[in-house]
Design goal:
CATH architecture of the largest domain: 3-Layer(aba) Sandwich
Order of helices and strands: EHEHHEEEHEEEHEEHHEEEHEEHEHEEH
Bound molecules: adenosine-5'-diphosphate, aspartic acid, magnesium ion
Number of helices: 11
CATH superfamily of the largest domain: Acetylglutamate kinase-like
CATH topology of the largest domain: Carbamate kinase
CATH class of the largest domain: Alpha Beta
Shape: globular
Radius of gyration: 23 Å
Helix content: 25-40%
Strand content: 25-35%
Number of strands: 18
């Protein structure tokens, strides 16, 4: 019998009304004779009582002593609670179900608390329960180490749980339900005219997701891509099929120059100028940051110095480490990265100049830029985010399906 994995995010489980929509999607899949695994995120969003950020607010995480192991024990409660609430509601609707924690569902992870990686999924229990029940509800975002410690797999990780289970069970498809109609050309909260993408490749969406389009976690896409399992991103509040993410051999995928615009905020830019000790600067700064587990981005190395970004939360630690090396960093906080993503831009001249023109016309200062064959990134001040994303969305006319050839 075909297996379907459905994942419902926090906003889909926020209220009795939204939970009843979830139940109707599950009922519909059951009527289509699927064996169902349903993965859930924590209920609602901060300040809802069991949302992940609300749980995190119970402990003081500013102290360096806060233990990541205990943080994971705390955060995992959100998804565990959600699995029980949904399973209970399913039973009230005469659907036989059982709730499992990530560990009980066979999700084995590394022991990198708060950022653990799924190593394997032992499907024995899942398959057993799929025989016993109509629906197996699994708490997303969490797993267990081989020694039984509870872990979480990084924020937004329930999508990855669903994808990993889909791959392990060789599901017919994985459906990610959220509060938007599908994957759009930009965050619809930011761009009113954002258009829904009907069918896209794994690679395009993986890029968009890595650059901040948080509607689906990039790791989830990587997993389904390796197993070639179709992924649908759709709305809990509609019966439309949403966006199909699949491989590029499907003929109907339109050949778009630009797929979409993503953004990411809370970034700090760090500049260090030092001609005299250039070799020491180049060799020591990135090493101390890497040793402290701080990931750097937008790296630009020149004979006169270094320019790069770090996540804003790590600003003080990074500045302290650099100052301890006797260098003097110049810091610009509250920056944002805006990414123009599109597999079709490879070899097409004029994309970068269109971006620069669109932003400068709006008086938006570009602090740094970088590019690859599928993405152009610009670093700007956070206050300019909305203006920048809308200007780029307009300049590439992403609200319409058109020939985006650059003149
Ligand atoms: P969930 O709780 O369902 O996992 P998330 O908040 O993680 O929901 O993701 C859904 C949100 O992603 C949407 O509400 C939307 O604001 C945001 N988003 C960002 N970029 C995009 C995009 N390109 N397409 C659709 N939604 C996007
Ligand atoms: N509840 C977790 C988070 O807020 C996991 C998820 O939403 O996927 O990050
Ligand atoms: Mg999410």
């Amino acid at each position: 019998m075909a297996i379907l994995v459905q994942k419902f995010g926090g906003t889909s489980l926020q209220s009795p009304a939204s939970i009843s929509k979830v139940i109707s999607h599950i009922k519909h899949a059951k009527e289509e004779n699927y064996k169902l695994v349903v993965v859930v995120s924590a209920l609602g969003r901060m300040p809802d009582p069991y949302a992940t950020d609300t749980l995190l607010s119970l402990i003081d995480r500013s102290t360096p002593l806060h233990a990541k192991r205990e943080t994971d024990l705390l955060m995992s409660c959100g998804e565990t609670i959600a699995s029980v609430v949904l399973s209970n509601e399913l039973q009230n609707n005469d659907i036989q179900s059982i709730a499992l924690t990530g560990g009980q569902a066979g999700i084995i992870t590394t022991s990198d608390f708060t950022q653990a990686k799924i190593k394997s999924v032992n499907t024995t229990r899942l398959l057993e329960e799929l025989d016993n029940y109509d629906v197996v509800v699994v708490a997303g975002f969490q797993g267990q180490t081989s020694t039984g410690e509870i872990t979480t797999i990084g924020r937004g990780g329930s999508d990855t749980t669903a994808a990993a289970i889909g791959v392990a069970l060789n599901a017919e498809k994985v459906e990610i339900f959220s509060d938007v109609n599908g994957i759009m050309t930009a965050d619809p909260r930011m761009v009113k005219s954002a258009r829904q993408l009907k069918i896209v490749t794994y690679t395009e969406i993986c890029n968009l997701a890595y650059q901040g389009a948080k509607v689906v976690h990039p790791r989830a896409i990587e997993l389904v891509m390796q197993a070639n399992i179709p992924l649908h991103v759709r709305s809990t509040y509609s019966t439309e099929t949403g966006t199909l993410v699949t491989n590029s051999s499907i003929k109907e995928i339109p050949d778009q120059l630009i797929t979409g615009i993503a953004h990411m905020s809370s970034i700090t830019q760090i500049k260090i100028t030092n001609r005299e000790e250039m070799h020491r600067l180049h060799s020591e700064v990135f090493k101390v940051l890497a040793d402290a587990g701080i990931s750097v981005d937008f790296i630009s190395i020149s004979p006169t110095g270094l320019l790069f970004t770090v996540p804003e939360d790590y600003t003080q630690t990074a500045v302290d480490l650099i100052t301890n090396l006797s260098f003097h960093p110049q810091v610009t906080k509250s920056c944002a990265k805006v990414s123009v993503v599109g597999g079709g831009m490879m070899g097409v001249p004029g994309v970068a100049s269109k971006i620069v023109q669109a932003l400068t016309e709006k008086g938006i200062q570009i602090l740094q830029s970088a590019d690859s064959h599928t993405t152009i990134w610009v670093l700007i001040h956070e206050k300019d985010i909305k203006g920048a994303v809308n200007a780029l969305h307009d300049t590439f006319q992403l609200s319409q399906v058109i020939d985006q050839g650059i003149k």
